[in-house]
Amino acid sequence: HYMKTCVNIVTEICSTHSRANWRQLESAIFCINAVSIEACKFAVSESLQAGSVNKNQLNNDGNGKLHDTFLGRCVYSLAESPDVATCNPLVLAQMCRFIGKYGNWFAKSSQPGILDLGAKLSLGTFETATS
């Protein structure tokens, strides 16, 4: 599963708090950004947020909730390691793209506190990018 693999890479790199693997982090975020249209489409819907699953709003494999979970793990990891997530200009550029591409998802996610983490991640990333 493509999304799962990319999120596992982000989670692993962020959990070590090592800036040495910035190339792998940048690559993983790039790949997550590359599938953003499909991932957002399947990640979450308002009916999922309300607790009722609408089969038409999930992908054919029923992985909509899985995409939401994977994206949530990715955001939690990045928010816990802002120094790693903004350690290099290329990683920082991918972070800005990530926030832009998944901005709509932050508001619709069923993950607890994800909107607050998204705001924290956005502010920190954009502050670093402009300084």
Low-confidence stretches: 52-60
H/E element string?
A: HHHHHHHH
Tell me what portion of residues adopts beta-strand conformation. Answer: under 5%
The tally of beta strands, per DSSP, is: 0
Q: How does the major sheet shape up?
A: none
Structural class by secondary-structure content:
mainly alpha
Please give the structural blueprint.
Elements: H1 2-16, H2 22-34, H3 36-43, H4 46-50, H5 64-80, H6 82-85, H7 89-108, H8 114-130
Helix pairs in contact: 1-2, 1-5, 2-7, 3-5, 3-7, 5-8, 7-8
What does this structure look like?
With 131 residues, the protein is mostly helical. It is built from eight helices and no strands. The chain has helices at 2-16, 22-34, 36-43, 46-50, 64-80, 82-85, 89-108, 114-130.
List keywords for this structure.
0% strand; 131 residues; globular; mainly alpha
Summed up, what is this model?
The chain is mostly helical and 131 residues long. It is built from 8 helices and no strands. The radius of gyration is 14 Å and the shape is globular.
